[in-house]
């Protein structure tokens, strides 16, 4: 069993080595983000099937068993994601899988639904969004690892998309439950009750990364008109909420690193085996409630949602 110490400074790695000898601690010199820690786990693990869990996750008794059964049942799949349940509200699902919205963000499935309302199932999804999942390394497409550029947010989303693009399945297992704690210190909305400025920066920048790296040229051409409208709306929201600095920082990062992003894009597009139509979805814009707190904001969100549905109705037939 592996513990990846992502540059911690609180002595927790020493505690694990001293008090829990079955665990092997791999220490990283600095915090590489979730993607860096998971890539280390992929390299260091000795088994074909590798269970990844974050440090604020507790598994239920049959979680691992159900994930393993799902991968056995679907030999074309390489990833099986657990259903994430709130640790403080154990009758409610936080989410149980994700799809990729044409906007580039995740659509979380069965978000905030009661466990009793979601029947047991194994379903194929278009993205990976989870803090607990089982990977079959022998089935993972060659060369697909977590992109450490993301650091925080969407690194799992990007990974899941690239796995799907190479025709390998991503599964959501609705009765493989685990309990999720408060999230990342200083960044989690459940912990802070609002968006931190760092979260805003990563949310904006990493969404652009997902789109620029993974969507085909044809898809970008079809979606550009709606993207322009959305970016104007996002810019207005950023100004209203005083997040304009984070928006500009994200833009500057993309411009400075554009050649490197394009190199990664060429690698991704050269290995794709399925088209964007097979994993992109439409529907309402995947906004969290914390972003729209007033009547005016909710009104304009309603307009954007209507525009998104109409645009996707046409665009989905063209990509």
Topology:
Blueprint: E1 2-5, H1 12-19, E2 24-27, H2 33-44, E3 49-53, E4 57-59, H3 63-73, E5 77-86, E6 93-95, E7 98-101, E8 106-108, E9 122-125, E10 132-136, H4 155-165, E11 169-180, H5 189-192, H6 197-214, H7 217-240, H8 244-256, H9 258-271, E12 280-281, H10 295-315
Quick synopsis:
With 319 residues, the chain is of the alpha/beta class.
Keywords, separated by commas or semicolons:
319 residues; alpha/beta; Spore Coat Polysaccharide Biosynthesis Protein SpsA, Chain A; 2 domains; seven-stranded mixed beta sheet; three-stranded mixed beta sheet; 12 strands; 43% helix; 18% strand; globular
Structure description:
It is a single chain. The relative contact order is 0.13. By secondary structure, the protein is of the alpha/beta class. It has 2 domains: 2-180, Spore Coat Polysaccharide Biosynthesis Protein SpsA, Chain A, CATH 3.90.550.60; 194-315, no CATH class. Strands 3, 4, 5, 6, 9, 10 and 11 form a 7-stranded mixed β-sheet that branches. The mean pLDDT is 91. The protein starts with a strand and ends with a helix. The protein has 10 helices and 12 strands. α1 (12-19) links the parallel β1 and β2 (24-27). It has helices spanning 12-19, 33-44, 63-73, 155-165, 189-192, 197-214, 217-240, 244-256, 258-271, 295-315; strands at 2-5, 24-27, 49-53, 57-59, 77-86, 93-95, 98-101, 106-108, 122-125, 132-136, 169-180, 280-281. The chain is globular and about 55 Å long. α6 (197-214) packs parallel to α8 and α6 (197-214) packs across α9.
């Amino acid at each position: 069993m592996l513990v990846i110490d992502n540059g911690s400074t609180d002595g927790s790695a020493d505690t694990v080595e001293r008090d829990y000898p079955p665990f092997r601690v791999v220490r990283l010199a600095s915090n590489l983000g979730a993607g860096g820690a998971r890539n280390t786990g992929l390299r260091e693990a000795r088994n074909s099937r590798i269970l990844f869990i974050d440090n604020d996750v507790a598994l239920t008794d049959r979680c691992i068993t159900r994930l393993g059964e799902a991968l056995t049942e679907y030999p074309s799949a390489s990833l099986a994601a657990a259903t994430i349940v709130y640790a403080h509200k154990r009758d409610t699902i936080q989410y149980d899988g994700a799809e990729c919205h044409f906007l580039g963000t995740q659509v979380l499935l069965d978000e905030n639904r009661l466990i009793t309302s979601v029947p047991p199932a194994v379903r194929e999804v278009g993205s990976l969004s989870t803090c607990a999942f089982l990977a079959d390394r022998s089935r993972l497409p060659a060369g697909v690892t977590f992109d450490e550029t993301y650091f925080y947010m969407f690194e799992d989303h990007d990974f899941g998309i690239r796995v799907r693009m190479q025709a390998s399945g991503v599964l959501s297992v609705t009765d493989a439950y685990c309990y999720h704690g408060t999230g990342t210190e200083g960044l989690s909305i459940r912990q802070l009750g609002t968006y931190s400025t760092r979260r805003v920066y990563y949310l904006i920048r990493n969404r652009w990364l997902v789109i620029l790296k993974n969507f085909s040229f044809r898809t970008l051409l079809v979606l550009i008109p709606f993207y322009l409208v959305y970016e104007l709306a996002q810019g207005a929201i950023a100004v209203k909420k005083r997040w304009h600095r984070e928006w500009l920082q994200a833009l500057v990062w993309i411009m400075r690193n554009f050649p490197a992003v394009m190199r990664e894009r060429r690698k991704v597009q050269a290995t794709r085996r399925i088209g964007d139509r097979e994993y992109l979805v439409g529907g309402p814009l995947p906004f969290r409630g914390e972003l729209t707190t007033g009547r005016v904001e909710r009104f304009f969100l309603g307009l954007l949602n209507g525009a998104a549905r109409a645009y996707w109705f046409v665009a989905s037939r063209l990509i």
